[in-house]
Q: What sequence folds into this?
């Protein structure tokens, strides 16, 4: 059985990243928990040739003006990054500042936003909020480009208050209208922010009880420093990284950290990942894996590969289309991912992954690398459980998988499992598929 | 004698392919001759909800074209007397809803006007949650109104297929007290696909997967929540696919809601015993340049509903089906500066089917008495729910919508 430290580190990388292969887990355990957290929080200190590699592949593999390629490009990052928290946070912010290519209609703008989210993922929330508010995709997505001095469009103002900062119950309809006026004149041209002074309403507006000529930047600064924003972000971070059900105590700690540290996200995240609430055994398996988490951790933990382009349509059927969240509210986390249709899709991705027999790096899973030559059924199950389930196999799962591995002879009598080439190719792949399809593996 | 539902319920599981093939032939026969009379049997009645996500512009759907306040508030977007499909001297349908207008002429469409709730919320998500839960007070509801209807139809919680969602993620409206509902998306993916090299191994994998999904005695972990849904899926999927394959579409559906309605029609035709279907269609959040977009949405909605009932008429099941549309809110009376409309309050609901008593229900919104720039709802949405639940499905609406919802004259 794995040590408590190994369990903590595996938990950390499932949440702050996309899981670890066996060798990576061993190396990380040697470094210790504190060093791992430090690395995750300071991606700039970690050597990662990913950007250079992607640059090389761009001409060859990716046409980044095409949405499917942009999706594949991002998935490549999630699968290969050495700075996993950076990608995980980018996914978090994509869900928070949910923007959809269905309306923006330019993959290049979606990628530009994606880079902004990644660059500012660890900084001050206020800076991120300003950057997103001036982002071309966002300006198009919530119609701010269409807003005029004479007739302001309320779409951005409303979602800014409701979803990006304060949350419902902390503002009124008159605030929505005042904020909408403050953002008049915020436009984009060819992907760059422009301020059109003649379309800006420079008259006084009343917000938070103060009446003066609020500008967009003033509004963003006030919103970013508001305690309701701190509470809302803390609650979302806890649901994304710790527990689907939330954790009021930890949320309180994070909201206080946010306010005390001027909205420095790195400090809020440090408080999260070093909290005893995060490390408590009850926080393990307390989250449903999102489709991206499910797919990427499965591939990484098995040290396997699947053809990159097969992933986006499968993820879409599981309920997660990158760059096209279902609405401006982003994805609902937790049990909302799970229904009868998405569970079949997950089980079928599991089949897809476990039966990859192609070229290394582009569709290969090699069960024989992990199964000792003299392995019996129990050993096979334990081997993959250690890679996928923290070594924990509930009794009914063990019984089901053993029965599956054993098979039957012509008279229906059970036949013991032997790791022949054929058995490795059929039954061991089958066991891995079943394990990945199990209710237990859907949890992080 | 076994009724049709009972017969199908046993034949698919018991007789397998043979039963299906003979039944499919029997149905083709009946479709081309006299359809079976069926509206007499309330236990066969079906309710289909179509959710228009994003906040449909109700004022440009059921248009108060003769109202000056409407014309003045919408210099770019208003439709006039010449544009609309006339209903009466004050009201007309959006010009692209020709098919629905024709069906209205047959007396099969009730248009419930100005539906909403008091103290309207203009957040998509809050307002949708209110419509889904039928709770305006934010009492942290655990179930949705459609889920409670499923619970009333399947009191044992034994049949997850009593309600089918053709929307993913499953809308909160379908949340039941205990049993999961069936969410269905596409037929290729609604089964455990086998390893392509060892297709004969599928049976052993399905057997093992069933064991992984079997309930664990005296256990209530988070994984068990997932397990219950997985068990519903593996327990009901084969039957649903059999019905889908046995069923046929006999009309042409447009994209949008039509794609999903086509699947519903096939399931009904194929003998799926589901009583409640839920379909969503999006794109209604028309803040900017809405005219063409909205016209396209309503055309596809109207044509989709028409194709659906045409299809059901051909398969002899139209009498058993009522379809209801709703959206989380209407849009503001005044257009904005982007040739669009911002979030508003109440809106119309369509109730469609041969069993429906057609006509306008309630009064048009009063555009002279705005609150917060928007008209005030005249009919609480829970009255519409209660009327459908009680008068169509024959259930007691009280546990579903709360007590004291006046019933509307929606059914003949």
A:
């Amino acid at each position: 059985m794995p040590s408590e430290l190994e369990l903590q580190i595996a938990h950390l990388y499932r949440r702050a990243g996309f899981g670890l292969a066996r060798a990576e887990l061993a190396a990380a355990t040697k470094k210790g928990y504190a060093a791992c957290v430090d690395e995750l929080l300071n991606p700039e200190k970690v050597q990662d040739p990913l950007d250079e590699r992607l640059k090389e592949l761009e001409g060859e593999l990716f046409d980044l003006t095409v949405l499917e390629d942009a999706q594949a490009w991002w998935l490549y990052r999630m699968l290969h990054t050495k700075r996993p928290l950076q990608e995980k946070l980018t996914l978090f912010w994509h869900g928070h500042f949910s923007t959809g290519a269905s309306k923006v209609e330019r993959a290049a703008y979606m990628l530009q936003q994606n880079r902004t989210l990644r660059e500012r993922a660890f900084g001050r929330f206020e800076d991120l909020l300003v950057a997103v508010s001036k982002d071309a995709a966002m300006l198009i997505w919530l119609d701010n480009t269409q807003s005029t001095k004479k007739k302001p469009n309320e779409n951005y103002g409303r979602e800014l208050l409701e979803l990006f900062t304060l949350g419902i119950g902390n503002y009124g309809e008159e605030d929505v209208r005042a904020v909408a006026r403050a953002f008049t004149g915020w436009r984009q041209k060819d992907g760059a922010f422009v301020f059109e002074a003649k379309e800006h309403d420079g008259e006084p507006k009343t917000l938070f009880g103060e009446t003066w000529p609020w500008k967009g930047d003033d509004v963003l600064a006030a919103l970013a420093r508001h305690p309701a924003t701190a509470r809302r972000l803390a609650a979302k971070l806890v649901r994304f990284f710790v527990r689907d059900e939330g954790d009021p105590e930890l949320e309180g700690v994070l909201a206080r950290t946010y306010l005390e540290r001027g909205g420095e996200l790195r400090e809020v995240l440090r408080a999260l990942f070093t909290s005893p609430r995060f490390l408590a055994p009850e926080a393990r398996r307390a989250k449903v894996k999102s489709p991206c988490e499910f797919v990427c951790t499965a591939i990484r933990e098995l040290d396997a590969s699947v053809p990159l382009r097969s992933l986006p349509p499968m993820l879409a059927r599981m309920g997660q289309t990158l760059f096209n969240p279902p609405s401006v509210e982003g994805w609902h986390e937790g049990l909302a991912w799970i229904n009868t249709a998405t569970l079949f899709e997950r089980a079928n991705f599991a089949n897809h992954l476990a039966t990859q027999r192609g070229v290394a790096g582009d569709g290969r899973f090699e069960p024989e690398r992990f199964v000792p030559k003299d392995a019996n059924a129990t050993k096979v199950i334990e081997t993959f459980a250690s890679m996928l389930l923290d070594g924990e196999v509930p009794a009914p799962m063990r019984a089901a998988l053993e029965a599956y591995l054993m098979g039957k002879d012509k008279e229906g009598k059970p036949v013991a499992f032997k790791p022949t080439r054929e058995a490795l190719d059929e039954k061991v792949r089958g066991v891995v598929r079943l394990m990945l399809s199990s209710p237990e593996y859907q949890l992080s | 004698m076994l009724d049709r539902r009972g017969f199908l319920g046993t034949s698919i599981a018991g007789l397998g392919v043979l039963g299906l093939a003979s039944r499919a032939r029997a149905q083709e026969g009946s479709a081309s001759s006299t359809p079976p009379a069926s509206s007499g049997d309330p236990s066969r009645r079906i309710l289909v909800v179509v959710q228009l996500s994003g906040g449909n512009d109700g004022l440009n759907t059921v248009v108060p074209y003769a109202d000056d306040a409407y014309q003045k508030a919408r210099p770019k977007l208003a439709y006039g007397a010449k544009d609309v499909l006339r209903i009466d001297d004050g009201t007309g349908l959006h010009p692209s809803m020709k098919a629905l207008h024709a069906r209205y002429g047959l007396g099969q469409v009730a248009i419930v006007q100005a539906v909403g709730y008091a103290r309207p919320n203009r957040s998509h998500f809050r307002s949708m949650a209110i419509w889904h839960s039928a709770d305006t007070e934010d009492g942290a509801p655990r179930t949705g109104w459609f889920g409670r209807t499923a619970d009333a139809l399947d009191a044992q919680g034994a049949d997850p297929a009593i309600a089918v969602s053709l929307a993913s993620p499953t809308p909160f409206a379908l949340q039941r007290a205990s049993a999961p509902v069936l969410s269905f998306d596409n037929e290729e993916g609604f089964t455990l696909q086998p390893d392509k090299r060892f297709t004969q191994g599928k049976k052993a994998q399905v057997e093992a997967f069933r064991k992984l999904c079997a309930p664990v005695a005296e256990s209530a972990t988070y994984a068990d929540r997932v397990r219950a849904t997985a068990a519903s899926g593996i327990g009901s999927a084969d039957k649903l696919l059999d019905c889908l394959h046995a069923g046929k579409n006999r009309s042409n559906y447009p994209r949008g809601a039509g794609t999903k309605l086509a699947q519903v029609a096939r399931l009904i035709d194929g003998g799926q015993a589901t009583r409640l279907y839920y379909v969503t269609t999006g794109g209604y959040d028309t803040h900017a340049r809405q005219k063409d977009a909205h016209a396209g949405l309503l055309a596809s909605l109207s044509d989709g509903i028409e194709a659906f009932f045409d299809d059901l008429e051909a398969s002899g099941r139209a009498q058993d089906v009522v379809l209801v549309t709703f959206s989380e809110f209407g849009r503001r009376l005044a257009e904005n500066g982007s040739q669009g409309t911002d979030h508003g309050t109440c809106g119309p609901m369509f109730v469609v089917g041969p069993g429906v008593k057609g006509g306008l229900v309630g009064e048009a919104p009063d555009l002279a008495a705005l609150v917060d720039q928007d008209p005030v709802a005249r009919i609480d949405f829970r009255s519409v729910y209660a009327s459908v639940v009680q008068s169509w499905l024959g259930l007691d609406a009280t546990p579903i919508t709360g007590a004291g919802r006046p019933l509307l004259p929606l059914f003949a």
Remarks:
- Chain B touches chain A through 64 residues (CB under 8 Å).
- Confidence is low (pLDDT under 50) at residues 1-38 of chain B.
- The radius of gyration of chain B is 22 Å.
- DSSP finds eleven helices and twelve strands in chain B.
